[in-house]
Specification:
Number of strands: 26
Largest sheet: 4 strands, antiparallel
Distance between the termini: 78 Å
Strand content: 25-35%
Shape: elongated
Helix content: 10-25%
Radius of gyration: 32 Å
Number of domains: 3
């Protein structure tokens, strides 16, 4: 897999026959082949008639349905996750208008348009204020909001930086924010009557409903292509809620066709190359299995390895990993001894693309055999009991000279040696109990005293 630098012409040719999300095949028919203001006007006519849910209901959809994964909602700026239960009434997470209300989005349908509403921590929302988006230069006084304490497959390692007058979001959402603002510019152009004409520009002006910074947003659209969640949210808003799409998630190359700028970009919409799990081995520790694999390769690091576990072959829930790691090994602990566990490991890149191998490995955790299997009494004068035998074990008794005294394959977890043999005289001395199990071999010494 190679990340390829492509020119504006190649992007246009590529995406004229393919789109990122699941737009209906005829959704953009009237826009195909157009450029500039003609393309912008055609896209407006396609997306302008949408259902307005009202602001309060839109917030509920955003917090509890659109920007949710595994029962958590996520701050667009920090990546911090919060339990969605109770939102949007909880004061810690509130609703961020990427196009500020003071720049023309203080009334419906602009205010309640789900394509630009995002969950945000209240503190960061307040710090962003109505600042436009742009690069924050070195040497300025700024405040960072990072996500290093909130590990999740939506969350990266960069920071959102806010200084007086400007906001630079973390790298993983730069493109998401840019495409939301391009949507707002196209959707709201003063038609129909009563709606404002929102514009992207190089400098912001709340009185003229202008948001900045256009050239930077074009750059961010190129640097951060649509992610799987961004595509998923676009589909949900279209199919289940508003009934319109963000065309720049489906066709990010149209940004340059309308506003100009460089359309050179790096795209990586391929999952990692990964051979799957190599081994799953019981460690000898209580309730633990050691997993390992060779590193995956991909052009969008870092790579996350999603571990899927089941109690029967093929039973993994491949939409919800049991554990994740960025290492090439993992100790799965807290398991039940004697239960066989089945594992599939898949690699996912930083863009959210996960490969789909079905390589499965299995292991049965156990307590250290030397401690779990007991032989008593010792010394013995009569019958000797061997207890806590795993299934499919074999017990062989030898003299210290290597002569076989008796061998048996017990049907249960307990076996009793009667200290008798049809072909061997059991004398006083030291005997070796060699116990073979599926998880390894154990040797026990027993002193036997014969006679009455």
């Amino acid at each position: 897999m190679t990340k390829i630098k492509i020119t504006a012409l190649l992007i246009l040719l590529l995406f004229s026959v393919s789109v990122f999300s699941d737009a209906p095949s005829d959704y953009y028919d009237t826009a195909e082949g157009l450029t500039g203001t003609s393309l912008k006007s055609a896209l407006h006519n396609i997306i302008d008639a949408h259902t307005d849910f009202g602001y309060d209901n839109a917030k509920v959809q955003i917090f509890q349905y659109i920007h949710v994964r595994s029962n958590y909602t996520y701050c667009i700026y920090s990546g911090e996750k919060a339990d969605k239960t109770g939102y949007p009434s909880n004061d810690d997470i509130n609703c961020e208008h990427l196009w500020p209300q003071s720049y023309g989005c203080d009334s419906s349908p602009m205010r309640s348009d789900m394509h630009h509403l995002m969950p945000s921590r209240m503190q960061i929302n307040s710090s962003r204020s109505n600042y436009p988006f742009g690069w924050v230069g070195a040497g300025t006084t700024y405040q960072n909001y990072n996500d290093q304490l909130y590990e999740d497959d939506w969350v990266g390692t960069s920071e959102t930086t806010i200084t007086t007058g400007w906001c630079e979001p973390r790298d993983e959402v730069k493109g998401d924010i840019a495409r939301a603002l391009f949507y707002m510019d196209v959707r709201y152009n003063g038609d129909p009557a009563g709606e404002l004409d929102l514009k992207l520009a190089e400098s912001g002006s709340s009185g003229n409903y202008q948001m900045a910074k256009l050239s930077v947003l074009i750059e961010w659209n190129n640097l951060d292509p649509p992610s799987p969640h961004e595509m998923w949210a676009n589909d949900k808003i279209y199919n289940d809620l508003q009934g319109n799409r963000n065309p720049f998630i489906d066709h990010p190359e149209w940004v340059c066709e309308i506003w100009g700028g460089s359309c050179s970009s790096y795209t990586d919409d391929e999952p990692p190359v990964f051979a799957g799990i190599a081994s799953a081995t019981a460690t000898g520790d209580t309730g633990a299995v050691q997993l390992s694999w060779s590193a995956a390769s991909d052009d969008s690091p870092p790579i996350t390895y999603n571990i899927y576990r089941a109690a029967f072959s093929g039973g993994q829930n491949l939409s919800s990993p049991t554990n994740t790691t960025t290492s090439t090994s993992f100790l799965d602990s807290g398991l039940v001894d004697g239960i066989t566990y089945y594992y599939i490991v898949r690699a996912e890149d930083s863009e959210g693309f996960e490969e789909t191998n079905t390589v499965e490995r299995q292991a049965t955790p156990y307590v250290s055999l030397g401690d779990s299997i007991v032989v008593y009494p010792n010394p013995a004068h009569g019958p000797v009991t061997v207890a806590n035998l795993p299934e499919n074990s074999k017990v062989s008794i030898y003299t210290i000279y290597g002569e076989l005294v008796e061998s048996a394959q017990p049907s249960g977890s307990v076996w009793i040696w009667e200290a008798k043999s049809g072909r061997f005289t059991v004398k006083s001395g030291l005997y070796i109990f060699a116990i073979e199990t599926p998880a390894g071999n154990v040797f026990k010494k027993v002193a036997f005293i014969s006679g009455s």
